[in-house]
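Lab notebook: predicted structure, single chain.

Context: the supervisor wants predicted structures on file for every construct in the current expression panel, including those that have not yet been purified. This is the next one on the list. No modifications to the sequence; it matches the entry in the shared construct table.
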Amino acid sequence: MDLEQLNSHLKSLHIRVTVERQGHKLYLRATLPPKPDSKRQFAFSQRISLGINANEAGLQIAKEEAIKLGELLTNGEFNWLPYLRDRSETCDAWCDRFKQDYFQRRPDRPQTYTTYRTSYDQIFRKLPAHRKLSAKVLKDTLLSIPAGTRQRQRGTMALSKLAEFAGLNCDLKRYKGDYGQKSLKTRILPKDKVIADKVSSLPNLVWRWAYGMLATYGLRPHEIFFVDFDKDGLIWVSEGKTGSRHVSPLYPEWVALFELEANLCPPKNLESNPPNYDALGHRVTNQFRRYGVGFPPYHLRHCYARRSKEFGLKPVDAAKLMGHSLDVHFRIYHHWYTKDDVMRVNESIRLNSA
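Prediction complete. Output recorded below exactly as produced.
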């Protein structure tokens, strides 16, 4: 049911209320008496903010609210009080307080802002901003996120923290789901020869360099903007999602082959301070699409992890080079074990047993 169909349905029920959309939010429109603080004396057409998103679920809620309002008007029982919410108790207000407290207790550095954006803000934006924060609102918002996804897992954490901060008795952990290794989508990774051959097909020297850096050093896409070259092909990533680190090339010969020490880094064009790592990463992804690379930038990071096994690196060392924990290295980057990997292990076992 779309907005036009909903209003037609309300009209057929003789409900004297319509639903309107303003931006991404839904409102009720009806002839209502003046608000308590109004100087007007007679009823006139007014809007009531529902604080819900203009999507399929929001339309269903709006329908119920419109029928409820229509019945109140028909029975002469309408009162403004339930609709004049105290802004201090709304989801939007509580999120603002949480954000202020969050940054007061953490160091002022880019990683702090990135974590807040990805782990909290993206979830809080799903809340009905102008509705009163309650356990039911938190639960309904969480259940609107598909189960068995990373987003549901993040939502459980973020909304549980918000509930705790607001002093609400709300147990959301039961709805966390079973996101994990089984939920990961299979990645069809390019062979190293394909990766190397692809470089020459990129016409733009700057983005050819960016591609080569991702392929050679297994960087996160946003990290190419914060690289300095050290000796013997080592690079220093000065900042990023997990801070600074040294990284070694795999293959070392790719440094010269791809002319990486020319350091043709794309301009950052930073519009935010601290830098928005997500926005920088999206720029790289968009350029990969633009030049028809054929796979996303993160595939090159996965290939670096795969290559670290082939080079015989200990998992703990590979994890350090990639800037994540050993748990993440095993759980994510070594999760997909291909037939070729198994064949190499089988050949090694066969040779060692001979």
